Amino acid sequence: MEETLISDYKAFLAAGKTERECCEQIVALAEQHGYKDIASQQSLKAGDKVYVTKFGKAVALFRIGTDGIESGMNILGAHIDSPRLDVKQNPLYEKENVVYLNTHYYGGIKKYQWLTMPLSIHGVVCKKDGSTVKVSVGEQPGDPVFCISDILPHLAQKQMKESAADFIPGENLDLILGSGIPAPKNGGDKEEKDKAKKAVLALLKESYGIEEADFASAELEVVPAGAPRDLGFDRSLVLAYGQDDRACAYTSFRALLDAAPAARTACCLCVDKEEIGSVGATGMASHFFENAVAEVVARLGDYSELAVRRCMNNSTMLSSDVNAAFDPMNGDLYDHDNASFLGAGIVFNKYTGSRGKYSASDASPEFIARLRAVLDAAGVKYQMAELGKVDQGGGGTIAYLAAKYGMYVIDAGVSVLSMHAPWEITAKEDLWQAYVAYKAFLSLAKN
Q: Has this prediction a pTM greater than 0.90?
């Protein structure tokens, strides 16, 4: 295992708490490796390396091969969004001298996990004058952090009787931003309305030039504060926020940068919004990827819609997404013989979905056989698994959205323990094996 890759991965996670920050890092590293914005290129040829972005939150990178583009590409597709709390458009309010920031949770979370822990705020505020203010507060040693309060156990009798899904209403996931001093109860001067809120707004104005009205055109995300850490005395694990699915996004991206040139065009796709259904202009359900491929085909000459369709249809893809690692403390939720285990290598899921394979993409056995041959030849450690027991539930990925083009696709990624928690756990060995597997896949010959 190459420790440098793990160190670089942790640095990527530390600097990439949002999809915007991840996209920015990917583009910067790609440019260092010779990738160019496709908008700057009038034509393309074998060996050229280009990228396409959308709204700074999705990116597709292409390394042009010697095979004709209509014969398809080898694609590594991951997502770079993660569960979090999003700040509402009219978020700032004061209640009994405590200043709060109103949020709306994003993706599948256990709400109670986000209470009483240090949180940071990342994102952008876009102002009417056309300027954009980048915000990142809570990560540096001298920064303040933020927190969502909880009820003390002495008064929590009613709360403790409610279900875990209900005892923390979504509307209560509001951050404490500051506080004021209440007016004396025995009289005195009348207390100024929203004095503490005005003080917070003054600090925002001084530090960022932000007015309260600017929240209307802001995209601010609340995430756990702090950098990734080695976990365990043996340092075999990584504890970090956002490893679903940045564990696979980073190893896929690095594999593309490091892999030897091959005959087929190689692509790494990092999209947004997977955690809420791959919707919007930056999600896999949009036309972003198809449009990016069309731009590549056009610059290679002889553009036609048929050429784009043939390229997509003849491509192969690893949907680089994580799988649930077997949890020994809750082993009854898993089919032990079809579970994935920390440290056992990259995980392949023939199908995802839930219960009766609902919303699943079911991979072709012919494609799996070809992958096995390539991975075995490269000495890759891999495992075949499902998410959990059939009736326990399930999950989805972007695989089914790629499969609609007719391409071969299978889910392939890293096992994660405590998936969707503020802090998730992966094994360093699995990260390395995913990287090696992705590199091997990019050498796959055309069908």
A: yes
